[in-house]
Specification:
The complex is a heterodimer of chains A (367) and B (818). The longest helix of chain A is centred in the N-terminal third of the chain and has 40 residues. In chain A, the strands form two sheets. Chain A has a seven-stranded mixed beta sheet with strand order 1-4-5-9-8-7-6, sandwiched between helices. In chain A, strands 2-3 form a two-stranded antiparallel ribbon. In chain A, helix 1 packs antiparallel against helix 2, helix 1 runs parallel beside helix 4 and helix 3 packs antiparallel against helix 4. Chain A is α+β, with helices and mostly antiparallel strands and 367 residues long. The termini of chain A are far apart. Chain A is elongated, with a radius of gyration of 41 Å. Chain A folds into two domains: 86 residues; 212 residues, BirA Bifunctional Protein, domain 2, CATH 3.30.930. Chain A is built from 13 helices and nine strands. Helix content of chain B is 24%, strand content 28%. Chain B has a seven-stranded mixed beta sheet with strand order 27-30-31-37-36-35-34. In chain B, strands 3, 4, 5, 6, 9 and 10 form a six-stranded antiparallel beta sheet that branches. The chains are: A alpha+beta (367), B alpha+beta (818). Chains A and B meet through helix 5, strand 1, strand 2, helix 7 and strand 4 of A and helix 2, helix 6, helix 9, helix 11 and helix 12 of B. The complex binds zinc ion. Zinc ion binds next to loops of chain A.
């Protein structure tokens, strides 16, 4: 009769000695397989004398259970080591370029336009649309810009061929609008006060294209008409808007200006976000020695940013339901291209429309 | 407008030495100071410039070693004369001259040092007017009045150093094109009184009457509402005093002679241009204010021969035009050194007419740039008074009694006078302006103000009569000096939730999706080269063309984005980036019939459509450094189009374009249509010839989708649709089809035939080659069956599958493979 203790010792020793899952499996077959001595002993237990059967059977089963448990735990341990080894062998040079997925970028004008839209959406202004080919009436007459005003002239404004008879003095002549203010009239015609709208869009002017001029650029117009609106509301709105756009801590100042469709008219300046109003060059620029004053504001400390004013009674009077005795309001316009240039710091307006992808793709991630 | 600060200080005596506060206040109150230039001798009169002295020539002799130099002994108040070596020869013993001593710094920044000139010590320099920036005269050194004391600082007599304020004057403020207007603004902004300019006219001391010297006939009163003239005799034409030259120079004008300088000075002072004629050259002693003859020639003062048209106003004598009114005079009536008898004109011309003439002739002058703003008819008499006094005082002239004053038949436009209700200023400005403040501001601005029962009765000064005509305009006058006092308040907006329009929301969705799919956004010009629209197959009548393009390549509004996108590709390929995949949401424009209205019921003057344009060449997703990118071919861009539309919830199908335009690949062009709906746009490989014509040799694929069409096809708020809890059954079939059969049609037919139990049909392979016969291909379809309420049995799916196959065999002559 085999010595169970000896068999167990041998088996334990082989199972523990196995260094790989394969060796362990071999030891398992040898000691716990169908023809292993211990297994055969238990299978043939009836061949033993009856008085031995109970003792041997019990001892054999205990031994087998112990060995099976040992084999299982050894398997887990060896398998874990082998998996780790395998994973180590799969190591990747993580510093190599990744397999990047295609990535597109929104144009800086789109990003800036959305930022402006979102600020005003947050303040409760609807965003409206308006056409770009307009009549002289919408473009000038209704905006209190009389015949003879310099802007209302084929030297400054594009006229549509075949619709340019008596250009400059014909309400029905067709123009490419020179400002988004045309949307004021259309918004007023569509809704009754209170009216709070903005309109971003394209405008055209007969300017030579250079670093700061273009025959096409983008503006956003804002218009608020309600009972009781004053210049104080205009000031508060402009401040709020410019704070969100350029920084909460910057000063804003209004300067008197002239626009035919607002009275009083102002221009708004925001304190330079680069030099904080000092006019000094940035630390980098100063160190380079190439600049003796702030490049963003040209040393002025202020950045001229938008035209604004209280809607002229003559404009209110154009549309029924906007009695200037009852309603007042304000309007302003801001150049989207210019804001994009200021925010991103590129030097030439033409870059926006040349679309070198190295330019556009610099501006990923916003807003 | 260039404003010498020393001149401004003479008009507003209380101003500080340093102009910075004036600059800030003027900028805020409406006359923006674009720049402040420091001119002349730095700090002269403010503790600097002491090296510049009055000197007297005691004696002079030749330089021992240089013929052209003189050794001069100059008394500069030091007891001992200084020896100065000088190259000029226009002075004599006893002349008073301007000297700079060593240590003085010239206006150009150069420091004067003791020097040896050809071996002889020179301890200073004698100065010309040009060297001091007083005029362009450099014929010799300047000779000063004999009564000036040697050794006196030169700045006591001459404004040596100055600041020049460069003002941006808005179109409504021609009054600020005159120093008096600017001074009035400064007085109001600073709370300072103006210098008393009286007497503002002079006594006539000559005999006779102005009509003995000239008569005026006003034949075009619509273009000249007022023409005034005076006559002067015994005029002595000469040079102007230095202070006058200095102020003219700093204001940007050249000194000509004392008479012309006086007219220019008074123009700079009042904003009202004047013109002085040599009375002896005025033919027939007659001035006719008339329209020019068509084609009438005139040789202007600058020597140019110009041809006039009949809408231009001229001041003519009995024979020919003497002046293009308000723009420029003719050479032969100008004041010269020989002139002794003057006619002085002060007139009011129609601004639009002057502007038109100036534009048509390409001729701008200090005079035309003022007149074109529209000057008032009262300023001529003011300017005439100042100029008369100066001609008498500076040019020795005697004024002839009488003033010619021809006016349009309906007289001079009256000064606006109206009542400003008390409630208006607070209603617009948001602040109360106390009575004393209203009175102070308006009176400083030269308004006549009287307190009425419920408001202010005001009369507007003549220099502002076209700008301030209504109560609201007076409110601006009050507001613009109080902008800093106005509080910041947000409006109480009660319009409810703010939104983008549907198209704007769709635009954002498409922009984000396109960028997410790897396309880079571009923005291109709306104006394109002439012929672009026609080259794309548009009829000429449908295009919007410019009557007055600026450049030849920006002459009509675009009807498509891809020509510009090809240019983007060309530029980037040239820059070494062959993989270009771009998009733009932009507007296209077509002519509209008269009377067209938009969806909102308002007039539309063109049909403007917002379009998403996509263009790609090279490969997509070039970021996989160790693998090839996906070629930017037709299927790839068609896939992008499907993905873009899927993001908007619109399912699309592509259909062949039977007669594709010649700018697309004849075999790779499709209309994009919403399933069961309208046309959304197109996708096509561009014809290689067309692309090459715009500089792109590589294959390029483009797509256009109309945002309005997408919006019409989309469901803004999709409704929930239940989906099955039961497993799908997938079966593949392969069909042999003739090559003429469109795969899209096969899919559509299969879907229709499969009914409710066929969840989807997709193509997963297309094979050409043996054993498939020529002219045929094999199309492998994956059919997915599923029911909403049970697991389908094999028998059920076999039945549906059979119906699909039967339909495809019957409709397309398909043969089932395998
Ligand atoms: Zn700055």
């Amino acid at each position: 009769m085999p010595d169970i203790e000896q068999l167990t010792r041998d088996a334990r020793s082989d199972l523990e000695a196995a260094a790989t899952v394969a060796e362990l499996e071999a030891a398992k077959v040898a000691h716990l397989g169908r023809s292993a001595p211990l297994v055969l002993l238990l299978r043939d237990i009836r061949e033993l004398p009856p008085e031995d059967r109970g003792r041997v059977g019990k001892a054999g089963n205990v031994a087998r259970k112990e060995l099976e448990a040992l084999a299982a735990s050894r398997h887990d341990a060896l398998a874990a080591v082998e998996l780790d080894d395998r994973l180590r062998a799969d190591a990747i040079d993580v510093t190599l370029p990744a397999r990047s997925m295609p990535r597109g970028t929104l144009h800086p004008l789109t990003q800036t336009r959305r930022l402006l839209e979102d600020i005003f959406l947050g303040m409760g202004y609807d965003v409206v649309d308006a056409p770009e080919v307009e009549s002289e009436w919408y473009g000038f007459t209704a905006l209190n810009t009389p015949v003879g005003h310099p802007a209302r002239n084929p030297s400054d404004t594009f006229y549509v061929a075949g619709h340019d008879a008596d250009a400059g003095a014909n309400d029905d002549a067709l123009i490419l609008r020179t400002q988004t203010s045309t949307a004021q009239l259309r918004a007023m015609q569509l809704r009754k006060p209170p009216l709070y709208v903005v309109h971003p869009g394209r405008v055209y002017r007969r300017d030579d294209i250079d670093a700061t001029h273009s025959d096409m650029f983008h503006q956003m117009e804002a218009l608020a008409i309600d009972e009781g609106l004053t210049l104080a509301h205009l000031k508060g709105t402009i401040e709020s808007f410019l704070h969100r756009l350029f920084g909460e801590e910057l000063d804003v100042r209004l300067r008197t200006h002239f626009f035919p469709f607002t009275e009083p008219s102002v221009e708004a300046d925001v304190q330079c976000f680069s030099c904080r109003g000092t006019g000094d060059p940035s630390a980098e620029d100063a160190a380079s020695g190439a600049f003796d004053r702030c490049r963003v504001c040209r040393g002025e400390g202020w950045i001229e940013i938008m035209g604004a004013g209280m809607v002229d009674p003559n404009v209110l009077g154009v549309v029924d339901g906007y009695d200037p005795e009852r309603y007042s309001g304000f309007a302003f316009g801001i150049g989207i291209d210019r804001v994009a240039m200021l925010r991103h710091g590129f030097p030439d307006l033409r870059m926006l429309f040349q679309n070198d992808l190295r330019f556009v793709r610099q501006f990923a991630g916003r807003p | 407008m260039r404003v010498p600060y020393s001149w401004l200080r003479a008009l507003v005596p209380g101003l500080p030495d340093d102009p910075s506060e004036v600059v800030d206040r003027l900028s805020v109150s409406g006359t923006y100071v674009e720049a402040v230039h420091e001119v002349g001798v730095a700090g002269a009169g403010n503790g600097g410039g002491e090296a510049f002295r009055v000197g007297r020539v005691l004696e002079f002799g030749p330089h021992p070693d240089a013929d052209k130099l003189r050794l001069v002994q100059v008394d500069v108040g030091e007891g001992q004369p200084r020896q100065i070596v000088c190259g000029a020869s226009n002075f004599a013993q006893g002349d008073t001259v301007a000297v700079v001593l060593p240590g003085g710094r010239m206006p150009d920044g150069m420091e004067i040092k003791e020097a040896k000139l050809r071996g002889v010590a020179s301890r200073g320099m004698m100065l010309s007017e040009r060297e001091l920036g007083l005029s362009t005269d450099h014929a010799g050194i300047m000779i000063l009045p004999a009564e000036w004391t040697p050794g006196a600082p030169l700045h006591e007599h001459v404004p040596l150093g100055d600041h020049v304020l460069e003002l941006e004057v808005t179109g409504n403020r021609p009054d600020c094109l005159g120093m008096l207007g600017v001074a009035t603004e400064v007085g109001a902004a600073m709370g300072l009184d103006l210098f008393d300019m009286s007497p503002t006219d002079v006594e006539a001391t000559a005999g006779g009457d102005v009509r003995d010297h000239v008569t005026v006939s006003l034949e075009a009163p619509d273009l000249c509402p007022r023409y005034m003239a005076r006559a002067f005799v015994d005029v002595r034409v000469g040079t102007s005093p230095l202070w006058l030259k200095a102020w003219l120079a700093r204001a940007g004008m050249r000194s000509i002679n004392n008479v012309v300088d006086v007219t220019n000075y008074v123009m700079l002072l009042t904003g009202q241009p004047l013109h002085a004629f040599d009375a002896d050259q005025v033919g027939g002693s007659r001035i006719v204010v008339r329209r020019a003859e068509q084609g009438e020639p005139v040789t202007t003062f600058d020597g140019a021969e110009r041809t006039l048209t009949s809408d231009m106003l001229v001041i003519a004598d009995a024979e020919r035009p003497a002046v293009i009114a308000g723009v420029m005079g003719a050479a032969d009536v100008e004041v010269t050194a020989e002139t002794t008898r003057l006619v002085l004109e002060a007139a009011c011309f129609d601004g639009h007419s002057i502007q038109g003439t100036s534009r048509a002739l390409g001729l701008r002058s200090e005079s035309s740039s003022r007149f074109e703003k529209g000057l008032d008819p009262y300023s001529p008499e003011v300017a005439l008074g100042f100029a008369s006094r100066m001609l008498v005082e500076l040019c020795g002239a005697a004024m002839v009694p009488g003033t010619i004053d021809e006016q349009a038949p309906d007289g001079l436009a009256p000064l606006p006078t109206f009542t400003v209700p008390d409630a208006l200023a607070p209603r617009i400005l948001g602040i109360d302006v106390p009575e004393a403040g209203v009175r102070d501001t308006l009176e400083r601005l030269a308004f006549t103000v009287e307190r009425g029962a419920d408001g202010w009765d005001v009369t507007v000064p003549h220099t502002r009569m076209f700008d301030v005509t209504r109560p609201i305009d007076v409110v601006e006058e009050l507001g613009r000096f109080r902008l800093a006092d106005i509080p910041s308040v947000l409006p109480p907006i009660v319009t409810g939730g703010a939104l983008l329009t549907r198209i704007q929301r769709l635009r954002r969705l498409l922009e984000d999706t396109a960028a997410g799919l790897g396309l880079t956004e571009v923005v291109t010009y709306g104006l394109v080269a002439p012929g672009t629209g026609e080259s794309l197959g548009n009829h000429e009548e449908t295009l919007v063309r410019l009557a007055n393009p600026m450049t030849v390549d920006h002459a009509e509004l675009r009807t498509g984005l891809f020509p510009a996108h090809l240019e983007v590709a060309r530029r980037n390929i040239a820059a070494g980036a062959p993989d270009v995949a771009v998009f733009e949401v932009g507007r296209t424009y077509y002519a509209a019939e008269p009377g067209t209205t938009g969806d909102d019921g308002l007039p539309r003057f063109s049909n403007e459509r917002d379009v998403l344009g996509v263009l790609a060449t090279g490969s997509l997703g070039s970021g996989r450094w160790d693998l090839d990118g996906i070629p930017a071919d037709f299927p790839a861009i068609a896939g992008l189009v499907h993905s873009l539309l899927a993001a908007t919830g619109v399912e699309a199908q592509l259909e062949p374009i039977p007669n594709a335009p010649d700018w697309v690949h004849p075999g790779q062009a499709a209309t994009v249509r919403a399933v069961g709906g309208g046309v959304l746009g197109w996708v096509a490989t561009l014809h290689p010839r067309y692309a090459a014509g715009l500089g792109v040799e590589a294959d390029a694929v483009a797509a256009h989708l109309d945002l309005h069409a997408i919006d019409a096809a989309r469901t803004l708020v999709p409704r929930f649709a239940p989906f099955s809890e039961f497993p799908p059954i997938v079966e593949d079939i392969a069909l042999v089809l003739s090559d003429g059969v469109a795969g899209g049609e096969v899919l559509r037919a299969a879907r229709a035939a499969g009914g409710a139990l066929l969840e989807s049909v997709e193509v997963f392979d297309r094979y050409v080659g043996a054993p498939i016969p020529d002219g045929h291909h094999s199309l492998a379809l994956r059919l997915v069956f599923r029911a909403a309420d049970r697991t389908l049995t094999d028998a059920e799916t076999a039945e549906v599958r059979g119906e699909v196959v039967e339909q495809l065999v019957g409709e397309f002559g398909a043969e089932l493979r395998g």
